[in-house]
Amino acid sequence: LKMSWFWFYLPLHLLMAACLCYSIKAPTTSSQQSFKTDLFNFYHSLMLADGKETTIHLLKDIPKRYYFVLEEGRALAPFTITVTPCDVPIEWSILVHKASASFLGKAAQGDHDTQEVSKSQKAPSMVSTIFNYKGNSVETYMGMSSHSALYMLEFLSTERDTHITVYLTTDTTSGQLYPELPVDPRIDVIGIGHTTVTLTWKHSPSVLQHRENIQYCLLVNEKHNYKSLCAAETAIRSSGMKLPPTLALSLSPYLLEPQQVMILSNSELSIINKASSGEVRQICMGTKNTYTVLNLSPSTQYYFDVFIVNLLTNASAAYTGTFARTLEEPEPKVMELKDGKVIQVVLDGKKQKFYSLQYQARHKKIQFTFQLCRGQVRVHIMKNGKTVALENISGLRYFLLKGKLLDTYLVQLRSTEESNSSVKVQVSPHFHKPLFPLLPESLKIKSFSKLRTCNSVTIAWLGTQEESKYCVYKKRIEEDRVWMELRSADRCSGPESRHKSEKVLCKYFYDINLQRAVTTETIKGLDAGTLYLFDVYLFGPSGIPVRYHSKVVKTRKKC
Question: Which of 30, 249, 293, 369 has fewest C-beta within 10 Å?
C-alpha cells in the first residue's frame, strides 16, 4: 500500500498520548480530563476486538485503519489475523510500532517526558511493515511479539465499495473461531452423468471433534468458484436474489423470495435461486462428505464449492472449489412414421424432452395431421434439416407440404407445460381420404342464458357442408371440480370413454351454406341450480371423433 508516514505517525502519536494521559495519576482540570477521555474513546472505537469477527465496510480508494496493542509483560505473545474479502480483491497491510523500555518507563513518570517520547516515536526505525497482501483470497497472518507493540492494519479497495471481515485473536490455546480444514482441502469429482455430478471431500477435523455443531454446505453455480462463503453470498445478492442470513441454515422456517425454492428431504436443506445469470443452489447436508447433485442440465459446466460451517458462530472455512461438465444428452430415439397410420405420443412436461418422429416421403405432396389431446404441444417439422413449420398447436392442425420423392422429414414434439401433454399424429399422401372429419370454423359450444330454465339448457354449435354425425353428452359436476375437469379432459378420447347414462342424443346435419350450418339442442330433465358439463363429438367418414370444447352451464335455481 502507498502509506503516508505522516498520517501513520499522527494517529500513533495521538493514540499513545491518549493512552499515556489516561494512565497518568496526577490531578487534572475537568476540561483537560474531558478532552483526554474523548480522544481515548475516539481511538478506542478503531481498536480491533480480540476474539471477535469484525465486519468492515470499505469505500472505493479510501483507506481504512484499525489498531490493536499487544500487552506488556507477555513473553513471545502470539497472535493471528484472518481477513476475508467478501467481493472484489483488496489491499491490506500490517504495520507495527515497537515501544522501547525507556519509553514505557518515562511514560509512567508524568507529562514532562511526553515531548521526548514523541520524538522517539517518530524515528523511522521504530515503524515497520511486517505483512502486506493484495487479492480476494482468505488470508491469515500468524505473528509473535517479544515486547509491547502497537499494530495498525490498513485496508484499501481500488475497484468499488465492498466489505470484509477481520478476525483477531491473541488466544491461540483455546478453540478457533473458524472450523479446521483437512490437510488436503480439495473436492474430488467421482462421478459425472447427463444430469448428475457426484462429489466427495475429506472430513474436517472439526467434524470429528464437534459433530453436533458442524455441517457441510455445498454451493452450485454456473459462473465460477468462490473463495469464501461471504463472497458467495455477496455475489448472489448482487444478482438480484435475496438469501437467508447465512448458508449455515438451522432448518428453521423462513419466508422465501418468489425466485427461491426450498426443498427439505432426508435432513438435507436445498435452496434454489433462479436468476437471469443462471441457477444457484445451496445444499446443507449435515456431516456427510459425499454428495450427488441431481437435476442438472446436460452438457453444462458447473462450479462446486464446499464450506464447513460452525452452527454456533456461523463462521466458515472454504474447501478448494472444483468444476465439472455434465455429459451431453444422448440423441433421442427416432420413431418411423408410416403412411396413414395414427400414433399417439405422450410428452413428459417435467423433463421437457423432445419426442422425434421421422418420415421418408414417397410422394411429392404430403400432409401431417396433429390432434392435441391434452396440455400444450410445440411442433417443429424439418425437411432435409431445414425448418418448414414451427408452432404451438391447439385442437386439430394440418400441414400440407410439397417436396421431392425420398425427402426426409423430422418431426420434434415437446410439451410446453410442466404437466404431461399428449397428441395424435398422422402423415399421409392420400388427401382424398381424410382421417379426421371436415371441421367447422370454430369448435366452441355456445349456451343461451335467456333460454336457461330450472330443468333445461339450450346449446348450439357450428356444423359443416359435409353431412356428419354429432353426439351430445352431459355430466353433472361440482363447482370446485370445474377447473380440474376442463384441464384433465382428453380431447382425443371418444364417446367410448363416457358412461352410457351421460349420453343425451346423436343427430346428423349439414348445410351447403356455411352461414346456416348451425344447430341447436335443448337438453331437458336437469336439476335446478346445478352445474353441468356438455360435450359434442363430431364423427367423420373414418369414424374417428373430434371433440368440441367442453361447455359448463348452470341451470337456474328459481324459476
Answer: 30
Mean pLDDT over all residues of the chain? 80
Give pLDDT, residue 248: 37
C-alpha span between 370 and 387 (Å, rounded): 17
Residue 510 has pLDDT above 80, yes or no: yes
Tell me the CATH number at 133: 2.60.120.680
Query: How far is it, in rounded angstroms, from Cα 26 to Cα 112?
Result: 12
Q: How far is CA 403 from CA 119, 359, 382, 488, in A?
A: 98, 13, 12, 38
Q: How far apart are CA 286 and CA 272, in angstroms?
A: 18
Element (H, E) at 103: helix 101-107
Q: Do residues 78 and 190 share a domain?
A: no
113 domain residue, yes or no: no
Q: Do residue 308 and residue 350 come from a single domain?
A: no
In tens, the pLDDT along 157-194 reads 999 999 999 998 887 666 567 888 999 999 999 999 98
H or E, element range at 2: none
For residues 149 and 288, membership in a common domain is answered with no
For 457, the domain range is 445-554
What's the CA angle centered on 244, arms 289 and 192, to 5 degrees?
Answer: 35
Q: Which residues contact 234 (CB under 8 A, 6 or more apart)?
A: 86, 87, 162, 163
Choosing from 169, 196, 229, the residue where a domain stops is 169
Domains held by the chain: number? 4
Sheet hosting strand 90-98, strand order edge to edge: 64-70, 149-156, 90-98, 127-135
Other CB atoms within 10 A of residue 189 CB? 14
Residues 184 and 315 in one domain: yes
Contacts of 7 (CB under 8 A, 6+ apart): none
48 and 74 co-located in one domain: yes
pLDDT at 366: 92
Q: Can you give the pTM of this predicted structure?
A: 0.50
Q: Would you state the cell numbers that stand for residue 47, as one nine-digit string?
A: 481498536
CATH number, domain of 534, equals 2.60.40.10
> Do 194 and 307 fall into the same domain?
yes
Q: How confident is the model at residue 450 (pLDDT cuts 50, 70, 90)?
A: very high
Answer whether residue 535 is part of any domain: yes
Are the CB atoms for 496 and 516 separated by under 8 Å?
no
DSSP 290-315: EEEE-SPPTT-EEEEEEEEEETTT--
Which residues neighbour 241 within 8 Å (Cβ) at sequence distance 6 or greater?
257, 259, 260, 273, 275, 280
Is there a domain that residue 139 lies in? yes
Check: CB of residue 367 under 8 Å from CB of residue 435: no
Beta strands in 194-318 (DSSP E): 197-201, 214-221, 260-265, 268-275, 278-284, 290-293, 301-310, 316-318
The answer to whether residues 479 and 457 touch, using CB atoms and an 8 Å cutoff, is no
Burial class (CB in 10 A: 0-12, 13-18, 19+), 286: middle
Q: Is residue 2 part of a domain?
A: no
